[in-house]
Each structure stands twice: as structure tokens, then as C-alpha cells.
Design brief:
Blueprint (H helix, E strand, L loop, with lengths): L3 H4 L1 E2 L4 E2 L4 H11 L3 E5 L5 E6 H8 L11 H4 L7 E2 L4 H10 L4 E6 L2 E7 H7 L2 H12 L6
Parallel strand pairs: 2-3, 5-6
Antiparallel strand pairs: 1-7, 3-4, 6-7
Pfam families: CBS (PF00571)
InterPro entries: CBS_dom, CBS_dom_sf, Diverse_CBS-Domain
Organism: Streptomyces cinnamoneus
Length: 142
């Protein structure tokens, strides 16, 4: 059985909610990633900030990334998955919430991230097709 830890990109790092977006961008560049989990003062996941967030929610609105914090951009309930979760649980979580990146946690510690690229690289074509269809399809009314 394939688990989250089998398909994740290991060694993920997070930044605190008090870090500026300038610092977030520097860490993203250093790690060659497009998203960083954000932690609160208790070292708990409180959100994710992406390179797109920095551009659209900060720069495009004329805000200063040296003054805006990562915590100001975190929205909604953060999603994560346990490292021992079955890959189907990973796909279900990403599909249900239409998210493209999912932090992986083990013993309450961030151990990795799963992105669309990880899913595509690691899973069979039929699972990839179902996943991309769910993520990229228009939301339906219920």
C-alpha cells in the first residue's frame, strides 16, 4: 500500500506567521518551491502561503512585501495529511478541497509536502487522470 510519505517531497520547511512575505519569497527561492506552510506561535500549521499569493494578494494590490506577514495571507482551515495515510486518502483530501499542495505531518511535525507534480510522478495514469479531473473541473452546484 502506497502511503503519503512514499510520494511526498521530504524536507519541507515552514515559516512563522510573523515572517514577512519578503522572507517567505527568499525561503521559497532557496528551497526552489512555490509554497510554504505557515505555523502559528505554538508551531501548529495555520496555513500555506504561495508565490502566487505574494504576487496577487500583495504586490498587485500595491502592498509592501517587507511589511506584510505570511499570517495576513493565510485563509481558511489549513489541510494536512498524516505521513502514514494511504495515497487514496491523500487524493481524496486534495480533490475534496480542490488543493494542489498538501503538507505531510508525522508525530505533529512537518516532514514533507505533496504537490501535483508528486502525484503525477508517483501514481498510475488512471489515478492521475481522476485526480486532475477533480482538481481542475468546475465546481458543481449541489
Amino acid at each position: 500500500m502506497t502511503k503519503a510519505k512514499d510520494i511526498m517531497h521530504p524536507g519541507a520547511q515552514w515559516i512563522t506567521r510573523d515572517e514577512t512575505l519578503s522572507r517567505a519569497a527568499q525561503v521559497m527561492e532557496m528551497l526552489d518551491v512555490g509554497a510554504l506552510p505557515v505555523s502559528d506561535e505554538n508551531s501548529r500549521l495555520c496555513g500555506i502561503v504561495t508565490d502566487r499569493d505574494i504576487v496577487v494578494k500583495c504586490l498587485a494590490r500595491g502592498r509592501d512585501p517587507a511589511k506584510v506577514t505570511a499570517g495576513e495571507l493565510c485563509e481558511g482551515t489549513p489541510r494536512w495529511i498524516d505521513a502514514d495515510a494511504d495515497v487514496q486518502e491523500v487524493l481524496n483530501e486534495m480533490e475534496r478541497h480542490r488543493i494542489r499542495r498538501l503538507p505531510v505531518v508525522e508525530n505533529k511535525r512537518l516532514v514533507g509536502m505533496i504537490s501535483e507534480a508528486d502525484v503525477v510522478r508517483q501514481l498510475p495514469d488512471d489515478q492521475v487522470a481522476e485526480f486532475t479531473s477533480a482538481i481542475y473541473s468546475s465546481p458543481t452546484s449541489t
